[in-house]
Design brief:
74% of the residues lie in helices and 0% in strands. By secondary structure, it is mainly alpha-helical.
Amino acid sequence: MTLEYEWQKEEQKRQEEPEAHTPPETEFEFLALVQNGDIRGVNANLSQREFRQIALVTPLSKNMLQNFRYHSVVTIALMTRFCIDGGMPMEQAYRISDFYIQKIDEAGNLDQVEMLHNAACRDFTQRMGEVRKRPISSKPITLCLNYIYSHQHDRITVQTLAREIGLHPSYLSRLFREQMHCTLHEYILRQKVESAKQMLQFSDRSFADIANLLAFSSQSHFTQVFSKFIGMTPRQYRDKHFRNNLM
């Protein structure tokens, strides 16, 4: 039996059934809420449990758990592309997507899948809310932001970025300052500090390890930069925010 034969047989059966798919406008409206960082709108939608309702009437698998997984993966894939289009660094969007899809693949029941689906929606939305606070960036600056996000463990210089983007270093520096309202160097350090905050909060890595991993010249340099941006030392931040929830 060929795929064409199976498709025609399935198509004839579907022709006799009522329409089962949700209009794309409904899905696009939700994705627009995520892209715009509208957490209130997203929470309102999720509270109605529309995802579960759609999955129940649109079977992608005879196994209901697998069906839920498929619907979740489709939603997350679409959110990823909507968020990239909305200005989220591409690598960040794909890493978030990969994380939730892998978690959903491991989920053992419908409630877990639904919880992870909703968590992914809220995560993307909240991050897009931060993206929306940034000035609108041109394509060269967007490429810069993506490169910086993807290479926080490297020593990033203006010359490196200019070579990657294909612009003269002085022109790239001026363009970045005009659009992002800060210098490239300051932005790079801020991103490294944000990564350091997550490591201090959710890992037991030593301060020296974090400094080395994020390509600071030394632990003292890391402490100096962190204190400048956060207003407390890495040790003080860890003492205040560390979450001992490591599995």
